[in-house]
Amino acid sequence: xxxxxxxxxILFDAYSAVxxxxxxxxxxxxxxxxxxxxxxLQPEVLYDRLGVELERWIDCIHAIKKSxxxxxxxxxxxxxxxxxxxxxxxxxxxxxxxxxxxxxxxxKFGSLLGTLLFLSRFYRYI
Length: 126
Fold this sequence. Notes:
The protein is mainly alpha-helical. It has helices at residues 9-33, 37-40, 43-50, 54-71, 88-124, and strands at 77-80, 83-86. Helix content is 73%, strand content 6%. The radius of gyration is 24 Å and the shape is elongated. The mean pLDDT is 89.
């Protein structure tokens, strides 16, 4: 290596290029790994955090919808040369989980809204 025109710089550049690709791959894969929270989250914990503040519920519903839109694309693979990541299977599972959470949160929100509406009418007559 010492006899090459630029010495060890070529080797360092090669290692740097490989490290760059691996960092990009790790960052992309970590985006998908973050979706694991959809499976780890307990409904009661989420509902307790949201409480009875309607604005929090609406923000949560919008966040679910926005996150789902980010996942729901036509592409099912990405190429970070020379690595190809095919996320077809995980994409469909994550999309179904977002559908589940969206449905669950909307149902609970509807129940909360109905209860609050009932209570507001009930207290008017007292």
